[in-house]
Amino acid sequence: KENMETQSLSLLNVDAIPEEADCVVIYAPQSDLSEEEAEILTDYVAGGGKLLVCAGAVEGGVLENLYSLLSHYGVTVHDGLVVDTDRSHYALGYPYLLMPDMSSSPATDALMEENYYPILPLALGLTVSESTGTGAVTSLLTTSQTAISKAAGYEFSTYDYEEGDAEGPFTLAVSVEDSGGGQIY
To answer: 128 pLDDT exceeds 80?
Structure first.
């Protein structure tokens, strides 16, 4: 309906992303990439490709190779579910249904103009550090200062801080402009 043509692509049987691909989308992965697949995607973005990843917590595992795509740019993914104890940053009375603050960008401006609120259930926290020189990272969605990454993951039993938890604030979505012209959202 948006004049887009889509095709499924398995990274298991290709050596590179096809040149005619305008963008690669990874939506709600339930298992991790292999190191070889992550390398294919890294090369694709470094060569000017565009990558959209909609991923979060998965029960019983960590998507280390997928998240390594962000580590090249100084972004760390916390292993734990984020809760935000600031009532203006969660929806429907559940501190894990996050309503983050939005920063202006081409991806968020339309939402902000229409006063829409993204709701992110069961999100992972990101920490953006200093630039690594391989690209520029912009935080798009952020929690309040009182957010906590619960180390117990799906098994957490309290919204309060416990030993082993990480204190926020956290970034929940980023855009990356690779120095080679590629982009990751």
So the answer is: yes
pLDDT digits (tens, 9 = 90+) for 29-81: 989 999 999 999 999 999 999 999 999 888 766 799 999 999 989 999 998 99
Query: Cα angle vertex 165, ends 133, 176, to 5°?
Result: 25
Cα 22 to Cα 8, 34, 167: the distances in Å are 13, 23, 38
Beta pairing class for 50-54 and 24-27: parallel
Q: How far is CA 36 from CA 14, 40, 64, 130, 141, in A?
A: 10, 6, 13, 27, 30
**Pair 49, 17: CB distance under 8 Å:** yes
Residue 34: half-sphere exposure toward Cβ, Cα within 13 Å = 8
The one-letter amino acid code at 121 reads: P
Q: Cα separation of 129 and 138, whole Å?
A: 11
- Read off the pTM: 0.90
| Residue pointed to by tokens 């995607």 | 41
Distance between CA atoms of residues 175 and 165, nearest Å: 26
Coil, strand or helix: which one is 180? coil
